[in-house]
């Protein structure tokens, strides 16, 4: 099942939801058609929701791991974003620079279940930033506000970096973290 999900994630990222067919996922993952329908009897939408969850969990793990490397939230978040920027420039790592943003934008108006799956993932990531900020002594109210702004900045930078095919926006975002979190 993981091979199907990983292949679907890559193809949804590369081609988009609408341009990725189930037969293409089956072919690229080299799995029998019956396996796809065994794990995802409701078809492409169910597969996409599971893919969003898988990508969300993987990115969540990466965020937590990066943030745990530095007790200073400003430095930890800045380094996390710079690491994203570095991975983005490494062509072999671009497949690992998943963003659910493009999939979310493409499906939000056609699928409530995919919209909800994306919302849950974004909330999970935002909560990770929140926890880091609170653990550094920030008030809950201030941490809630800043974690949401962080999520918006990072997702926007990822989207524009993908559109421009360069990491300039990610680097610029990382450089502004000390300004955003000053007086934390």
How would you sum up this structure, described in words?
The chain has 184 residues and is an all-alpha fold. The protein has nine helices and no strands. It has helices spanning 2-15, 22-29, 33-39, 44-68, 73-89, 101-107, 112-135, 140-164, 168-181. The longest helix is centred in the N-terminal third of the chain and has 25 residues, at 44-68. The radius of gyration is 17 Å and the shape is elongated. The mean pLDDT is 90.
Helicity, in percent? over 70%
**Count of separate DSSP helical elements:** 9
Number of strands: 0
- What percentage of the residues does DSSP assign to strands (E)? under 5%
Task: Give a quick account of the main beta sheet: strands, pairing sense, barrel closure.
Answer: none
What would you call the shape?
elongated
In short:
By secondary structure, the protein is mainly alpha-helical. Helix content is 77%, strand content 0%.
Essential attributes:
single chain, mainly alpha
Topology of this structure?
Blueprint: H1 2-15, H2 22-29, H3 33-39, H4 44-68, H5 73-89, H6 101-107, H7 112-135, H8 140-164, H9 168-181
Helix pairs in contact: 1-2, 1-4, 4-5, 4-7, 5-9, 7-8, 8-9
